[in-house]
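Dear colleague,

As promised, here are the two records you asked about, laid out in our usual form so they can be pasted straight into your sheet.

NAME FIELD: protein one
SEQUENCE, THEN STRUCTURE:
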Amino acid sequence: MSQIKERPILFSAPMVRAILENRKTVTRRAISPKLVNRFDEPRGPADVASGYPFVECEDGYCPATNLCPYGQTGDRLWVRETWYCDHFEVQKGPYLQPVDMHDLDQSREDGELVYAADGLAPYEQEQPTWKPSIHMPRWVSRILLEITDARVERLQDISEEQAKAEGVRLYTDHSELGDWWHVEGIETYSADPRKSFELLWNSVGGDWNANPWVWVVEFKRVTP
């Protein structure tokens, strides 16, 4: 039985809020062109059914999902997000956990350890510069995810249900007009959640029209 592995994964503040609100249970990440170039062409329906796309491995060909950098079903992802810690030892770096910060829940409650995704009250807005998510150490992370599925798809193959699971928000101010969807921070609304996800993808530097191959990683929150 393979050992469960933990890996870090970065999320923006809006996506962190979507995870905390149980609106986001899947993420799509572009696959490296170097790996895509190794995809072998399917030779028929049987190849597709066996796990296409696949790449050459030591024992012949294997599904590309075997090389997913985010892990396999059962593995875990700890979320890196923008943060700040008002503790002199942490401010000096390299962000090792101070011995007197053993109760992290209390540190969060006291405002000593804060996260940009939670927002700041007016009196707190003079906090020093936020620490980038890429610099978040494991001990600071408050969100742990367990992978429930990992697969490879073309970006535009996303379904409406999957678009909703990506964290797009239902706009409820005018519910009498029907369901409208949008992404936090993007003031464009659509009756199609796929369109809202398209805008989200493009907003982070992606190119929807290129229809790239993507890792599709589904997850559920677990207790850290």
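NAME FIELD: protein two
SEQUENCE, THEN STRUCTURE:
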Amino acid sequence: MSHSATQWRDQLETLRANKVFETVVIGIIIVSALLIGAKTYEESSRFEQIIYWLDWGVTLFFLIEIIIRLAAEKNLLHFFKKGWNIFDFLIVTASLIPIDDSEMVLLARLLRVFRVLRLVSMIPELRILLSALVKSLPRMAYVALLMFIMFYIYGAVGSFLFHDVDEKLWGNIAVSMLTLFQVATFESWATAVLYPTMEHYPYSWIYFLTFIFLNAFIFLNMMIGIVLDVMQKESTQYEIETGQGEAAEIHWMRENMEILRAQMDRIESKMDNKP
């Protein structure tokens, strides 16, 4: 009985790791996303019954797929130790809420929207990108704090200097910071902010150019640098875990060098101990 169960588990594990099966799952996720988009059009009312059954077909497929993944695990606890597995399990479980119940229809539709995020859990490259973004947030927060300080200083200065130009743009520090945010995004900043201000203060371009240089060129590039640095580390970690790529080869060489060094040390110690 145990041997038969092991065979079944091995077969399910082979199916789960099969590239064709993974491609089918990704395809079903895309179909699920298209069904969600189709429901937002009024014309979809003519095909409401078809869309309804297709939606339940997708939900049933996801349920079978998560059961296969659970059955392929030697220990269920190992499955729930990975955050992405927990995310997939919750999304699939939440999709079982009946969509035809008038009280639950809105919640059910909202939960089905999140099924699109399963693409992230299925595609390793997307997982690396999202993981890098999340791990970058603490370091990016310090850059964001520094940007806020610069916004606050420039907002205060702009409110003091340009208050008489246009109160809608420079009336107080809060409004000034919103104006500076428009400048930082380059959204019609020259025609709406710079030129009207220069009509009253010809040298105000120094104020705007220094602000843009600090925020658009320095701080934003610092943000990008942080994300790229963390993304490189995540990519390296993924290559080591999968045993593929240059990082995995370097890691393997380092481990073998340490083993050889330990063996050499033992040989030298034995030779030294000989009379």
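A couple of things worth noting about protein two: The chain has two domains: 2-122, 127-242. The CA atoms of residues 8 and 20 lie 19 Å apart.

Best,
R.
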